[in-house]
User: What shape does this take?
Amino acid sequence: MASIVERPKKDGTSTYQVKWRLDGEWQSEKFGDADSATAFKGLVEAHDGKWPYGWVRGEGFVEHPKVPGDMPLVEYAERYVRRLTGIDPRTREDYEREIRLHLSLVQHADPSGHTVPATICNTSPDDITDWVRIEEDGERDPDDPTQWARRPADPKSIANRHGLLFCVFQAAIEATPQLRTMNPCKGTRLPRVDDHTDEEMTFLERDEYQRVRQEITDPDARALADWLVGTGMRWGEATALKVKDLRLAGDTPTVSVQRAWKKARKGTAGGAFYLGPPKTRRGRRLVALTAAQADLARDLSIGQGPDDYLFRTATGKHWRHANFYNRKWQPAVKQAVRGGLLKRPRIHDLRHTHAAWLIAARIPLPAIQARLGHESISTTVDRYGHLVRELDGEITAAVELAMGVPAQPGLRVVAG
Assistant: This one.
């Protein structure tokens, strides 16, 4: 906490010194009136005991001279995204939309407290914190306060956008000539992702899945649902499988995941989706099949060529997500709910359900990571680790053993 010390002068007036400790060292700034000292004390405390950004000791807030090469933040971010390599057109379009709708909300507060347009050079850590709050709070429609002009962003979306901002500013640091010396996104306190519950995963018990399954009257749609919950594949991976991906001979039949459906950039000729690589590098994988799954794959591939899709609609075309969701999945879920089902699973929840079933069967998380095609084991642990309960008995037994026998004086535990 900062304090104010009044120092009387011989002429009857006083100066006011604001004092505080920073990293164990005393800091101070002198003012000619109590109001200015009080205002500065508040700034120091708001900055966690650090000098306010832009404040020069003995001079006050000083605008930094314009940096050669500085430009509006949005303009620099768009240029950064245009120059990115190794990303597909859809990802580039997503980044451009995030810049247009969200990164454009970043503003810079000048020393007087007025907001001015953010540039790649004038943006401060406080500006980034203010932007995070704007994203968290959303914006009400001024004409109808019961409606949202911009809905509050969930923590995961804020973290993703903050990550893009971080990369943009890092590019400015690494530019030649250098435009910045520090990244204003470093150290930003972001909302906790695990505080968000709007998009909770839904795990189905076997009988709950069967309730939904029996309401899917189309046998082709039912076969696809069984495949999704039985293999844990992503929708875009399963519906992109071709007959040539099957390896059904031998004791362990498998299917090779080599491609997935991707949403195309708006305005792209040839349709809204295209075939590309799986979501992650480890997404290319072999998935072991049960005997029943292998039999299903054989039945579906009868009379089909190597490049024909394994899962097809009644008209012989590959499944589209909207068609399956609106005409097959949603009606089945609604009917199951009417029959007593207490959950409303999404299609992607079949993948989560598959993982939950494997964990319940004591399959190690690294094996689940490989089967699901997660790039990192941390993804598997973060998403499904809370379901791992098979060691609870061993853990509680170990605690009881350690806590239940009082230690005797003069004895110590020796590892061995």
User: Anything to note?
Assistant: DSSP finds 14 helices and 14 strands in the chain.
